[in-house]
Amino acid sequence: MSSNDFDYSLWARNNYHGVCGLIAESALYGIYAVLIIYALRNLWFAEDSSRTKARVITLFSLLIMFTISTTLWALDITDFLRGLHKILILTDGTTTQRNADYLLELNPRVIVQTTLFSMEYLIGDGVVVWRACALWGYSKKIMFLPILLLSAAAILITFFVGCLGVHDWTYIAGEPETCYDSYISIFFLSIATNLLATSLIATKAWMHHRLLLSASVEKTTRVLKVLVLLVESGFIYLLIWAAKSMSVFGDLSSTVNGQFAVSMLNSMGNQIVGLYPTLLVVCRTRCENEFFGGKFAVQKSGGT
């Protein structure tokens, strides 16, 4: 069997990166699965849980994100196994030809994965914004900018998919610059939205801390601890996105270590994008009764 000029070294390195990415993604998926079960228990099956419209919408959003993350995880496994099958198992034609056939087969799956990923972090951003605005009593002044950013991201996702369709669904071989720019814009709108939501939570935590100081009571309450956890997890989430954004600029992917980092971040991102909003909802639900029913309650309107 002639393999022509097929680069087995590059192929093996890419598969090594893929295996490492799948291991990390699978571990995060396991954590995500446990967290979604816990969220389902607290939002729907807990004895003291009130099945309000807001909770139903929140739970529905979490389940959609988990379904998308599961699909992305399954597609990543499929992509990896199909690549091995095409190169190592099949014997028709040269290795170079089989690899070219695999890339043609892979292109529509990658488009589906990219679109689903964009939809998932749009839903996730919506959940994060919703929970952050809940701490502010759903003030219209507070909600205006986050909703504007979410609306812009939704429009750009639609534009991105339409742009690929107009250009014959070309993606792996190099999507048109207009499509690429729209996708990058979606990505940075997501970062801006999460930065804004995390800042709103941080501000509320600082205000709660100041309230405790002025009342001369215990300075570290469960509510404050949960708020600090939300802020810390929010900034960790932002750091991960910031690291992922490095692949957009410069020549990070031109080095072996850079390619490995990009591969890992892409694989982990499929789960992190849904895991963080779910964590936020779980933490927010745990302190809900204390935060809104205790001595230092903040104003709440319109449900959870």
Q: What are the salient characteristics of this protein?
A:
Rhopdopsin 7-helix transmembrane proteins, disordered C terminus, elongated, mainly alpha, 304 residues
Question: Would you write up a description of this structure?
Answer:
- The protein has helices at 8-45, 53-89, 95-134, 140-166, 177-215, 222-245, 256-286, 288-293.
- It has one domain (8-293): Rhopdopsin 7-helix transmembrane proteins, CATH 1.20.1070.
- The protein has 8 helices and no strands.
- With 304 residues, the chain is mainly alpha-helical.
- The model is unreliable at 291-304 (pLDDT under 50).
- Helices cover 80% and strands 0% of the residues.
- It is elongated.
- Helix 3 (95-134) runs antiparallel to helix 4.
- Keywords: Membrane, Transmembrane, Transmembrane helix.
- The chain crosses the membrane at residues 16-44, 56-75, 110-130, 142-162, 182-202, 223-243.
Helix and strand composition category: mainly alpha
Helix content: over 70%
What sort of overall outline do the alpha carbons produce when their principal axes are compared?
elongated
- The end-to-end distance, rounded to whole angstroms, is 64 Å
Helix count from the secondary structure assignment: 8
Indicate the proportion of strand residues. Answer: under 5%
Class, according to the CATH hierarchy? Mainly Alpha
Tally the structural domains: 1
CATH fold descriptor: Rhopdopsin 7-helix transmembrane proteins
Q: What's the architecture, going by CATH?
A: Up-down Bundle
Order of helices and strands: HHHHHHHH
- Provide mean pLDDT, rounded: 82
| Biggest sheet layout | none
Task: Calculate Rg over CA atoms.
Answer: 22 Å
Number of strands: 0
Poorly predicted regions are 291-304
